[in-house]
Amino acid sequence: MSLLELKNIETYYGKIQALKNISLTVNRGEIVTLIGSNGAGKSTTLKSVSGQVKLGAGSILFNGKDITKLPAHDTTLLGIAHVPEGRRIFPRMTVKENLMVGAFGVKNKKQVQEQLERVFSYFPKLKERLDQKGGTMSGGEQQMLAIGRALMMKPDLLMLDEPSMGLAPIIVEQIFEIIKELNNEGMTILLVEQNAYQALQIAHRGYVIQTGEIILQGPGEELLHNNQIREAYLA
Ligand code: ATP
User: Fold this and answer.
1) Mean per-residue pLDDT for 152-164?
2) How many whole angstroms from 27 Cα to the centroid of ligand 1?
């Protein structure tokens, strides 16, 4: 059984159809990437899973449970973390406060402390900056904080929407290294990226979305060497 399964989903913004018959699976322990150009429907796919937009048709299963109609709050409590495009940390709150927001579903103090330590092991910089306001940090640090905040809830599935966006190449390298490391330690990841080259290098499998439809899918390695993809996305 897949951890996440999208079955023929369709999503509309008013009369505009953003997703057409999207089917996709993420198995436990995988990094699956969804690549495609601007406006292809990548963010809408993640929002459909986390319950930020309603489906016009189709269904979504998480751990075998039907979550098609669940609102965002409930998908979070079930273990789906969604790090949105543009990071959206709370700029006027400190690093510590931002992280604690992520821990809202964790009742036990000891567990919160354990999660904090775990987040610091991935992002030592956050520990040094605990009292700094989120908005005063660099783009890369804010991305790390956004991922750290998502990890605080100990999710079963981590969905990342363009974590490399707007970051310097060396920081992008670091972020992708951390994504790989998280996965090596068991985290299942659904990664949306325009940066197809780097995403396919770390992904077990990938899907290519174009104007709301999946046009290609396969192992990351295979897609990396696919001519159609090389021309369209890796140029
Ligand atoms: P990007 O990288 O630019 O976010 P994307 O692949 O994530 O691209 P989506 O943001 O999912 O694409 O958008 C898919 C389509 O839906 C686009 O045509 C977009 O213009 C449209 N769309 C997205 N959000 C809305 C909205 N709130 N209202 C109307 N149309 C929208």
Assistant:
1) 96
2) 26
Instruction: From 13, 38, 193, give the residue whose CB has the most ligand 1 atoms within 8 Å, as the site to mutate.
Output: 13
Q: Which CATH number fits domain 2-79+155-234: 3.40.50.1260, 3.30.2130.10, 3.40.50.300, 3.40.640.10?
A: 3.40.50.300
pLDDT digits (tens, 9 = 90+) for 4-58: 999 999 999 999 999 999 999 999 999 999 999 999 999 999 999 999 999 999 9
**What residue ranges line ligand 1, CB within 6 angstroms?**
13, 16, 18, 36, 38-44, 85, 194
Residues of the chain with CATH 3.40.50.300: 2-79+155-234
Q: Which amino acid is at 172?
A: V
Model confidence at 106: pLDDT above 80:
no
Q: What pLDDT is stored for residue 87 in this prediction?
A: 78
**Nearest CA owner, ligand 1 atom 19:** 39
Q: What is the pLDDT of residue 88?
A: 85
Task: Quote ipTM for the complex.
Answer: 0.94
Tell the residue nearest (CA) to atom 27 of ligand 1: 13
In terms of Cβ atoms closer than 10 Å to its own Cβ (0-12, 13-18, 19+), residue 197 is middle
Amino acid making up residue 167: L
Mean pLDDT of the chain: 94
Residue 36 contacts residue 209 (beta carbons within 8 Å): yes
Contact 137, 145 (CB under 8 A): yes
Kindly report the protein residue whose alpha carbon is nearest to atom 29 of ligand 1: 13
Nearest atom in ligand 1 to 45's CA: 11
Are the beta carbons of 120 and 127 closer than 8 angstroms?
Answer: yes
